[in-house]
Amino acid sequence: MSPNIIREFWCLIEATQTNILLELDDASLVRWLVQQFARRSMVNSHEVQDLDQYISVRIPLIRDIAQDRQFQYQ
Known about the structure:
74 residues, mainly alpha, 4 helices, 84% helix
């Protein structure tokens, strides 16, 4: 994946409501993030597959970031 795609993906994570990141199960969260990313950016099918794998491996990190954000706003 290109650095631009990775950067755009993490911007999407920052813009996503924490309840979505924390409440969806892993498979649903991966699907939802891929769909949201594909709507925002022009990606081909190969990049979508790469993004799916990239997200799947980083679900624990994504949830940790969301939990940290949630605690900051309480």
